[in-house]
Amino acid sequence: MKIVTAVAPVNIAVIKYWGKRDETLILPINDSISCTLATDFMCAKTTIMASPTFTDNKFWLNNEEVDFNNKRLNNCLTEVKKRASPKCADLLNWKIHICSENNFPTAAGLASSAAGYACLVSTLAALYEVEGDISSIARRGSGSACRSIHGGFVWWQKGVQPGGEDSVAVQIAPASHWPEMRMIILVVSDDQKKYSSTSGMKTSVETSELLKYRSEMVVPKRVKEMVEAIKTRNFENFARITMQDSNQFHAVCLDTYPPCFYMNDVSRSVVELVHSYNKYKGATKVAYTCDAGPNVCLYLLEESIDEVVTLINDVFPSSVGPSEYFRGLPVNIKN
Ligand code: 2P0
To answer: For the Mvd1 C-terminal domain, which residue ranges apply (predicted)?
Structure first.
């Protein structure tokens, strides 16, 4: 028998992925950019055991057995097996038991599927000794998962090939390139989100004219500016583009018919607080970004951490959300 374990962290996009041009291959309509968190906080951990004595494939997620007959899981497994090392020929015929867990709320808009599938594919790749880039395999599990394969600042290039061979994630720079960069995750609610990202973005593609404009006219320019801001460590530009892109993503959600509401009053008051703080400082010191849920991620530099954490804790009493997170544990970026 053979046992392998891997961990993969969450990533938080600063240029959002929203919309597919191919639902089966999970090919996006635009490029996206994110930062991957350090692994010790908000990560998925997966252990896989393969044995010639197992009679069935089995999968446990957060200590509950779930159906192995899941399309995305099986797509990932098939793709990994295609690239298995010749040394693993026997192993390919053995059944596997997968055990995966997240150390943060699942499906609360905290990129749990990104960490989950990145971790699943990394563990499968270790099991079958796959070499080379595995981001295009993780993409088949969940689009955003391809970005969690790398640490630091990561760019998912949408690619042009119909089969998706060039729809891969690449590292723009490791975390050490900008060691002062930090995130604060504000868990406004750990409830499961109302509409899944998968169905929300499908409806957006079908109904939102703003999304078409965004993917064709806005994102390509923004991606270039963001890569430049990261390469030159220009926080002012990094923060402005991050906030503008979050706002446009939520505008697309509102332009979707019927609309998807992800942010709530608490998220919006964090947004207002960030703008007031930046105005008071006379410079852009903090950026907010919200995904498909009400939680807010702040990007800021180490020099601002103490003041911003104090401010958040003063303005939002711990009763607003699970205090351990809401009090704003600064998170490092993974190398
Ligand atoms: C992102 N999100 O770039 C954006 C921002 C949510 C809002 O990637 O259908 O869970 O599995 O490919 O990866 C959520 O999308 O969707 C997402 P699927 P996924 O982080």
So the answer is: 183-335
Ligand 1 atom with the shortest distance to the CA of 201: 9
CATH number at residue 131: 3.30.230.10
Atom of ligand 1 nearest to the CA of 145: 13
Can you give the residue range of the structural domain that contains 51? 2-172
Quick check: CB of 100 below 6 Å from ligand 1?
A: no
- Cα-to-centroid distance, 145 and ligand 1 (Å): 8
Q: How far is CA 228 from the centre of its chain?
A: 21
Of 123, 138, 172, at which residue does a domain stop? 172
Q: How many domains does the chain have?
A: 2
In a shared domain, residues 168 and 185: no
86, 193: one domain: no
**Best probe residue, ligand 1, of 72, 197, 241, 289 (max atoms within 8 Å of C-beta):** 197
Q: CB atoms < 10 A from the CB of 220, how many?
A: 12
Write down the ipTM of this complex. 0.99
Q: Which of 152, 172, 192 is the last residue of a domain?
A: 172
